[in-house]
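Weekly structure sync, notes
Attendees: PL, DS, HV (note-taker this week)

Item 1: HIT family hydrolase
DS walked through the input record. Source organism listed as Pseudomonas fluorescens HK44. Sequence as pasted into the shared doc:
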Amino acid sequence: MDTLFTKIINREIPAKIIYEDDQVLAFHDIAPQAPVHFLVVPKKPVRTLNDLTEDDKALAGHILFTAQRLALELGCEEGFRVVMNCNELGGQTVYHIHMHVLGQRQMHWPPG
Ligand code: 5GP
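Item 1 (cont.): predicted structure, written out as tokens:
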């Protein structure tokens, strides 16, 4: 069965898309936790960070670099946060890896 994010990638579910290339899709989070909150999702449906393999190293770097470039394009040059939740204890709810990018507000530590 396709993941929720594969359905967004395939345009079966609408989303506010920011960027797309052959490897990733970036779109605004449906429940934003900051003035800027978007997700960078690989088109390859890797379930959790634990499922990444050696073969995915370039893809993982591409996700991070895309997050940085889009954060700057969306006005987060003063700072932003990236988050990847892994499994239940990590707070993951959608089992298709994704990088959250949050910006344009003060972030705090430790996170909840
Ligand atoms: P997780 O909790 O797995 O780290 O993050 C999943 C994120 O996906 C949440 O921030 C949630 O708001 C977002 N999300 C869930 N369903 C949808 C949807 O249908 N569209 C969009 N754009 N975001 C979604």
